[in-house]
Write a structure and sequence with these properties.
Blueprint: H1 2-7, H2 23-32, E1 47-51, H3 53-64, E2 71-75, H4 82-96, E3 99-100, H5 101-104, H6 106-109, E4 116-118, H7 122-129, H8 137-146, E5 150-151, H9 152-159, E6 172-175, H10 181-186
Parallel strand pairs: 1-2, 2-6
Antiparallel strand pairs: 3-4, 4-5
């Protein structure tokens, strides 16, 4: 996606969720002020794109600072209904069969404590995010190769988050596939 978007004249900025804390708010302010975009100047607009847990992070960010972005693209688990959020967490955790990240990939994640989890194996990644026959094995292998650990506390904090991005003035595109494994498991397809 990054190659496609940049070929169309868009600039792409992203952060690695591990260890960033509240940095996404600071990063957006710096981008909007042109501090990371020196060769192209200040951007005309800022669109936030979140996938899975990133959609939750964006919703919380927008609830706290509704005018920090001009548009949103939320994919996968982007809804804010507490009942659906709790059920999706149960289904997602069961599907990905999480294990302590430092034991699954010690070379990459050995420095992380036991609060970080990772897919048990590539098959659990398929169970959590892919639905046959609508994927290619190469896509799953790539997704697994770039997957990052997730913090247990992040899921728990999201379930308890009162944040509702109801005051966002810009356009929002929600991309929850009706035939995703999560929606099929929840009976909402």
């Amino acid at each position: 996606m990054v190659d496609y978007m940049t070929s169309k004249g868009y600039s792409m900025f992203f952060y690695d969720r591990l260890g960033t804390g509240q940095s996404q708010n600071v990063l957006l302010k710096l981008i909007r002020n042109g501090e990371y975009t020196t060769t192209i100047g200040k951007p005309d607009s800022v669109i936030l794109l979140g996938h899975a847990f990133g959609s939750y992070i964006i919703q919380d960010l927008i609830a706290a600072a509704p005018n920090i972005a001009d548009g949103l693209v939320l994919t996968d688990i982007s809804y804010d209904d507490p009942e659906i959020a709790l059920e999706s967490l149960k289904v997602r955790l069961e599907a990905c069969a999480p294990r302590i990240a430092s034991t699954v990939r010690p070379a990459e994640f050995g420095n992380l404590d036991s609060g970080y989890l990772f897919f048990a194996d590539i098959f659990s990644h398929v169970n959590a995010y892919f639905a046959a026959p609508d994927y290619e094995v190469e896509a799953v292998e790539y997704a697994q190769s770039i997957a990052q650990p997730f913090g247990v506390v992040g899921f728990m904090s999201r379930l308890n988050s009162p944040a509702k991005p109801n005051n966002f003035p810009g356009p929002v595109l929600v991309g929850d596939a009706p035939n995703s494994p999560l929606f099929i498991a929840l009976g909402r397809c």
